[in-house]
Amino acid sequence: MLGTDEFIKNAVEDMKKKIPGKAIIACSGGVDSMVSAALATLAVGDRLLAVYVDTGLMRKGETEEVRGMLQDMRINFKIIDAAEEFFASLKGVTDPEKKRKAIGERFIRVFEREAKEFGAEYLVQGTIAPDWIESGDGVRDTIKSHHNVGGLPKDMGMTVVEPLWNLYKDEVRAVARALGVRSSERQPFPGPALAVRCLDEVTPENIAIVREACFIVEDEIKKAADSGKMDLPWQYFAVLLPTRSVGVQGDRRAYGRTIVVRSISSIDGMTAAYSKIPQEVLDSISTRITGTMKDQVNRVVYDITNKPPATIEWE
Question: What CA–CA distance (Å, rounded) separates 152 from 181?
């Protein structure tokens, strides 16, 4: 990448040329979309509308956190509650590629409606290099289709503008710091959100389980890092498996769900190593999850796989 200041200058000038009219951007609160929104705002000002879509698949407290970030950045934005639409489009879907493509298409349909109302003809996206590399093409294999690449419908009625196309995550973070974007150090969160951390049908009930488990994993690891027990990992979360196993509650047989704890060290997301969580922290996570969700979860396991051979997310 060019020097950060030079990259920002060139990106803004390029977007001024590519976006002669109004544009819309999906802002999830992650560093990629927030940096793209900041650059686009510098280029076109109020001719950009940032749209945060509450898909029903977001983490605990995510919507209010993102609202605060967008207000701080003084970006023209709108929050859409589309949970019913997304759950309907995912009904009966368990294949991970089909999930990602269904979510990508639903996102675009929501944006098309908002773009029509706003009068936008351009769609700005926070696509970065790992997204299109992993999504594959005629030369590369598809590892997994990122919803902002593999999920774009062919009949989409907007021109796509992607200012971060050639950047990797560490480079995006450098741009975020230079722009004063609050989410510069925020851990990565997948575009399809908790849908790809639910290895089963995406229902409100399953998402509620993995949402609470993710919250507990994040909270316990942050507390451990703050107290000096461990370094804060690059990414850390929970996954809900489709399997059930036998357990005990008191003197009764229980048949509950399994949660996986995943913690990763990486620089750019292209390769990664599992980060070592101290035993006492794992114990706190497991005890809290099974205690808080004793009617749903009776087993917690720890993923110690690097990338490759695994990917960071499970789907």
Answer: 27
pLDDT digits (tens, 9 = 90+) for 103-159: 988 988 898 899 999 999 999 999 998 886 764 455 445 444 444 444 455 666 789
- Contact, 52 vs 24, CB < 8 A? no
Please indicate, yes or no, whether residues 125 and 274 belong to a single structural domain of this protein: no
Paired residues of 274 in beta bridges:
264
| 31-44 vs 4-18: helix crossing angle, rounded to 10 | 60
Q: Residues 218-237: what's their mean pLDDT?
A: 97
Q: What is the CATH classification number for the domain harbouring 213?
A: 3.30.300.10
Contact status, residue 21 vs residue 121, Cβ threshold 8 Å:
yes
Q: Do 27 and 62 form a contact (C-beta atoms < 8 A)? A: no
Query: If you count them, how many residues does the chain have?
Result: 315
Q: Domain for residue 152, yes or no?
A: yes
pLDDT digits (tens, 9 = 90+) for 6-43: 999 999 999 999 999 999 998 988 899 999 999 999 99
Integer angstrom CA distances of residue 283 from 193, 229, 231, 248, 277 = 26, 13, 17, 18, 10
Question: What is the SS3 assignment for 282?
Answer: helix
